[in-house]
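BUG-284 | component: ligand-complex export | severity: low

The export step for zinc ion jobs runs without errors, but we want the raw record kept on the ticket for reference. Input record follows.
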Amino acid sequence: MNSTMILMGIFLGLLTQAYALPVKNSTGLFEGKVRLKRKYSDEMLDRDEMNVMDQILEVNRRLRAPRGLTFREGDIATSFVRSAITCPDNACLWPKSVDGFVYVPYILSPLYDDMDRITIETGMQDISSGTCVKFIPRTHEGSFLDIQPRYGCWSFLGQTGGSQTLSLQTPGCMWSGVAAHEFMHALGFVHEQSRSDRDHYVTIVWKNIMAEHIHNFRKQATNNLNSPYDYSSVMHYGRYAFSEDGGPTIIPKPDPYIPIGQRDGPSALDLHKINVLYNCGANE
Ligand SMILES: [Zn+2]
C-alpha cells in the first residue's frame, strides 16, 4: 500500500511539474514579446487580461476625430463649436429631479442587436443600481445621450446640452464595463489618473510614453470629492497606456504592484463618487 502511495505521489509530482513548465515558458515568451513590440496594445495577447481602459485604447487606436471634434485622453470628445468643456461650477451636470433621481435620457441606435443592447443596458444598470442616476429611454427631453456604434468608444464630458453622441462601436466596445466607463464621462468624470492629486499615488513614467500622447497624461483641475484615490476605478488607465516600447507608463506608489484598473464595471468608490457629485440621498 505504501508503494502505491509513493507511486501516486511521483505521478502527481510529475503532473504538477508538467503543468507548471508551459505556464512558466509562456510567461517568458509573453515578456519577450512585450519588449519587442512598440505599440502597447499589440502585446495584449489575452483580452481577459485587459482592463476597461486598455480595451478602449485598443479599439480607439486608429480613431480619427470626426469633423468638428477632437479627442483628449484617448476617448473624451470635445467640440470645436462649443467652447472647450471644462465643466465650470458643475454646469455640465445632469439636472436632479424633484424626486431625488437624476434622469439621463438616451436613445439607442437601431443598428445595435439584442446582445449589444443587453451589454449597454447592463453598463447603465451597474451605475444606476448603486446611485441616484437613472438612464431612461428618451421621450421628449431636450438633452439626451444619442448612443451610436460610431468608430471607437468615446463620450463628451458631462452634459453638453441637446443631443450628444456617445459612441460604443460594436463589437469592440461591447463590454458593460466599457459602456459604464463612457457613461461616467457623460456624467462628468475624467480619468482617475488625471486627478489633481495623482502625483501622490502614481508615478508617470514620461520617458516611456509615445511622444504624441504625452498630452493624454496631463493633470486636470478636478474636484476630488473628498474621496480617496482609486487604483481600481473603472476610469483608471492601465499600467501600459500609450507605452512607446512596452515599458510601464504608470506605476503606483509606494507599492508598484498594486493592480490598476479593472474590467468588470464601476468600483465601489466610483459609485460613491457619483453619489457625492450628484448629491444622491439628499432631496432638494
Ligand atoms: Zn475614458
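Assignee comment: Attached the raw record above. The chain is about 30% helix and 15% strand.
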